[in-house]
Amino acid sequence: MNNPTGKLYLVPTPIGNLEDMTFRAIRVLKEADLILAEDTRTSAPLLKHFDIHQKVFSHHQHNEHQSSNEIIKFLLQGKNIALISDAGTPAISDPGFFLVREALKFNIAVECLPGATAFVPALVNSGFPTDKFCFEGFLPLKKGRQTRYKFLAEEERTIILYESPHRLLKTLDEMATYFGADRQISVSRELTKIFEETVRGTVVEVKQYFETHPLKGEFVMCVAGATAKPAKGKYERDEEEEE
After folding, report:
1. Distance CA 4, CA 212 (A)
2. What is the pTM of this model?
3. What pLDDT was estimated at residue 3?
4. Are the CB atoms for 191 and 164 separated by under 8 Å?
């Protein structure tokens, strides 16, 4: 008789503060048959801290297509596998989406635990509307970057972006060009860590601040949505066309 398939667990890990690890996440990692980590060197201190000794295998953006085949075989054999990224929730600007999609193709159960992710506290801290927002993650590095900016310039929802320290000032310059120097933004860095800070203001004001302050840690940028265009003009044009 064949064993029932195992389950794939997506387990969020702290984005900085180890106290944000949930009891449930620790239990699932301890009970898993094996753990997949984006970088085993990064996950080792975390697992050691919580006394987790399961086997750990590497699963990152450069090998996930190849390794997913082997992982699916383990799951079909009844193994329970937990996937973690370096920080935050797997598959959110991190590896995981491809594996989840492959698991679902084979009717393998997938369960994502709630937990840490960087963009939610950054959004709430921003003071911008949270009822509707647009998560963009990292913008394209080269091809398609300008096109994306032009598209987002008209976005009326709050926009959320991730950015690295060495590209932050360049990105702020580009935002001034495509969104306007006076567009309101909120930039958070080192979330949940000792030197956590959030800087709010216009694009120009925030850029001036970071030109003279440390560019360390990962950055989450929240951009106020574009002001909605009044509908009256459209209706007037429609009436003119009918005449």
Report:
1. 58
2. 0.85
3. 52
4. no
